[in-house]
Amino acid sequence: MRRAERLPVEIWVLIAGSFVIAVGFGLVAPVLPQFARGFGVGVAAASAIISAFALMRLLFAPMSGRLVQRLGERPVYLSGLLVVALSTGGSALAQSYWQLLVLRSLGGIGSTMFTVSSLALVIRMSPPGARGRVSGLYSTSFLVGSLGGPLIGGLLAGFGLRAPFVLYMVALLITVFVVWFALRNSTLINPVDTGPQRTMSFADGWRRPEYRAVLFSNFSNGAAVFGVRMALVPLLVVEVLGQEPAMAGITLTVFAAGNAVVLFASGRLSDRLGRKPFLVLGSLICAVGTGGLGLADTVPLLLITSFVAGLGSGMFSPAQQAAVADIIGPRARGGPVLAGFQMSADLGTVLGPILVGFLAQQLSYGIGLGVTGGLLALAAVFWLLVPEPMHRIGAADQEYPGRTAADASAVSGEPGTAPLPPSAESEELGGRGAR
Fold first, then answer.
1. Could you give the CA distance from residue 295 to residue 421 in angstroms, rounded to a whole number?
2. How far is 335 from 339, CA to CA, in rounded Å?
3. What is the pLDDT of residue 66?
4. pLDDT computed for residue 21 by the predictor
5. Would 2 be classed as within a structural domain?
6. Tally: H helices and E strands in the chain
7. Is residue 426 in a domain?
8. How many other C-beta atoms are found inside a 10 Å radius of the C-beta of residue 433?
9. Within 10 A of 158 (CB to CB), how many other CB atoms are there?
């Protein structure tokens, strides 16, 4: 039985940082619309505060990718956290709606900076044989943090609507210092004696069918999980099932519970069995659960289908992120590739609620959620037609700077850890460098 490969301390620092960021986001998100309404604006204007944050993430993602390519992952990560910290602190001091709108827009820019760069850091520092496990840990930390944030926010309710912003700012500033201190001399980020560093452009990624598949599946993920689910399920609960709004929160929490059950295990198993089984099966299960939500006519059925959708999402999410890591590899800088990956989800998050909401209004919630499930099923079909991403890991992965001889032997023989034949290795590495 092979022992699990040891993870570098830098990985654990990033996982802890992800947890803190998620807690803070969970603190601020529930109070933000009410805080905006306090400036005397309507519901649409209050909602625009949230849309502005998402829109700036989408628009600034290409620039974030270029910054990672030019400056490196660590400076962009720390700068992004600082931008979010300062804009969040400024939001606590906002005296008008327009000040709040500008500050939250700046926060969206900072958010996409640390999102793209943190994923790049995780890819660079993850042992090749443990990418799925690291992706599962990273996703789990964010999930747990996002669930804990609103609970902590409830305890702060007596201190006013500005208190969560202040606490989030302080937490981010502490995170900036801890990450800077832990990574300042890391040889995993800046390994010595490794020669020229390869770069990978968006066009390089687009040439690979696996990358095109991961873009579509992440678009589907953004549309279904982050967009339609958050926008339509609360309305479905109240308007169709006639339940109180609190039931909508329970339904979303049950989805998160389904995620939590499988996130870590699916990521770890994808390192042994490959990414495609989890990408295909997870997308299909999430499709069934999402479509089932539209057919639910009782609360128990609603909760069951929400849990099923969460299971599917938890199965494919770590494998999807690990697939991107497989495509780029630890020795290349792929900022534009990562930016494209993030933008695909953001685009789905923006378009999904609008288009599916129109279907729900004109036809029915069942049809709208059924179409959303169909989108996830189509993503599964795409993955059936492309190569296994993990089988394309090349010789660069064998030179992972944090790997010891014991670590290498612990994972030898697993899919994705075998070196390419000399001719294939030369084509894979030399061909990219010539582009």
1. 51
2. 6
3. 81
4. 85
5. no
6. 18, 2
7. no
8. 11
9. 7
Asked if residues 26 and 150 have their Cβ atoms less than 8 Å apart, the reply is yes
Please give the residue range of the domain that contains residue 119.
11-183
In this structure, is residue 288 part of a structural domain?
A: yes
Backbone angles phi, psi at 198, to 5 degrees: -75, 150
Ranges of residues in the chain with a pLDDT under 70 are 1-5, 30, 43-44, 47, 128, 150-151, 153-157, 186-197, 245, 330-333, 391-435
23-41: burial string, b at 16+ Cβ within 10 Å, e else: bbbbbbbbbbeebbbebeb
d(CA 161, CA 140): 28
Nearest Cα residue to 87 out of 28, 13, 26, 148? 28
**Nearest-angstrom CA–CA distance, 289 and 279:** 15
How many domains are there within the chain? Answer: 2
Q: Do 152 and 237 lie in a common domain?
A: no
Written as one string, the DSSP assignment of 248-272 is HHHHHHHHHHHHHHHHHHHHHHHHH
Q: With respect to residue 191, please indicate whether it lies within any of the assigned structural domains.
A: no
Among 148, 183, 218, residue at a domain's last position:
183
Q: Which burial class, exposed, middle or buried, applies to 395 when counting CB atoms under 10 A from its CB (0-12, 13-18, 19+)?
A: middle
* 334 and 412 part of one domain: yes
The amino acid that residue 60 corresponds to is F
How many beta carbons lie within 10 A of that of residue 221, not counting itself? 27
Could you give the 3-state DSSP secondary structure of residue 429? helix
pLDDT value at residue 227: 76
> What pLDDT is attached to residue 151?
67
Contacts of 403 (CB under 8 A, 6+ apart): 5, 127
Query: Same domain, yes or no, for 339 and 377?
Result: yes
What CATH number does the domain containing 122 carry?
Answer: 1.20.1250.20
**Residue range 42-95, pLDDT digits in tens:** 766 776 777 778 788 888 888 887 887 778 788 888 999 999 999 999 988 888
